[in-house]
């Protein structure tokens, strides 16, 4: 009985944490939007802490597209997750690079970074 209760409590806490991360993400987006609209790229708060907007470009492989459009290459790179090194054992680097470039997505936007002044 104690084991079952502990497992249920773990799940409840995980859900609470998930909800907190959702709230943090929402609040960060609000802060970024306000800072971008006001043109204020740095905000000091709580003494020596400040928040700064930084421009971020995030590139990542769209694995759904890779699997859908290049299934044979996707299978070549499978391990517990896709491995470029594993795929290179069976396909040339230029061809793999071309395929991965086709399946790469780019996300750009501001991100909030919190720093403590030294």
Provide structural commentary.
By secondary structure, the protein is α+β, with helices and mostly antiparallel strands. 55% of the residues lie in helices and 25% in strands. It contains 5 helices and 3 strands. It has helices at residues 2-38, 63-69, 71-76, 84-88, 93-102, and strands at residues 42-45, 49-61, 104-116. A 3-stranded antiparallel sheet has the order 1-2-3. Strand 1 and strand 2 form a beta hairpin. The termini are far apart.
Mean pLDDT figure: 87
- By DSSP (H or I, 4+ residues per run), the number of helices equals 5
User: Could you list the spans in which at least 5 consecutive residues all have pLDDT below 50?
Assistant: none
Widest sheet: strand ordering: 1-2-3
- Please count the beta strands (DSSP E, at least 2 residues each): 3
Cα(first) to Cα(last) distance is: 51 Å
Which geometry do the CA atoms define?
flat
Order of helices and strands: HEEHHHHE
**Helix/sheet category:** alpha+beta
Q: Sheet with the most strands?
A: 3 strands, antiparallel
Q: What share of residues is helical?
A: 55-70%
> Strand fraction band?
25-35%
* Gyration radius, in Å: 22 Å
């Amino acid at each position: 009985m104690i084991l079952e209760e502990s497992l249920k409590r773990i799940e409840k806490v995980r859900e609470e944490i998930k909800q907190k991360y959702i709230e943090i993400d929402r609040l960060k987006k609000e802060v970024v939007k306000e800072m971008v609209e006001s043109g204020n790229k740095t905000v000091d708060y709580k003494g020596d802490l400040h928040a700064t907007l930084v421009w971020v470009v995030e590139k990542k492989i769209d694995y759904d597209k890779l699997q859908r459009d290049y299934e044979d290459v996707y299978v070549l790179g499978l391990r517990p997750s896709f491995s470029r090194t594993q795929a290179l054992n069976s396909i040339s680097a230029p061809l793999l690079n071309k395929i991965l470039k086709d399946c790469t997505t780019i996300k750009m936007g501001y991100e909030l970074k919190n720093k403590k002044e030294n």
